[in-house]
Amino acid sequence: MEIMHIGVPVREPREGEAYAEGLKVHIAGPETNPMQFEYLRFEEDTPMHQDIVNNVHVAYKVDALASYLDKYEVLHAPMAVSDELTIAFINMDGVVVELMEFK
Known about the structure:
This protein has about 100 residues and is mainly β. The chain is built from 2 helices and 8 strands, in the order ββββαβαβββ.
């Protein structure tokens, strides 16, 4: 596994935000700061699990995302971000983890 970023929920807009309409979240990617923080500003009616909305998460690059889904509580089912990237969120022993599988 390789750590990709740390996701940090925020309430105030951040410079460089992009909007993910389907998830109803404004994202300032990890490339916008030296600590690799991904700032996430969720709208009230976001479909994302409340544990993702209210807690910091750690994102890992994994080889086989599916191998984690039957071992841990799934907070958000796998979704294609692009043709090259699929992500999912799990609760791994009380920690919110984003799994990132690249093709």
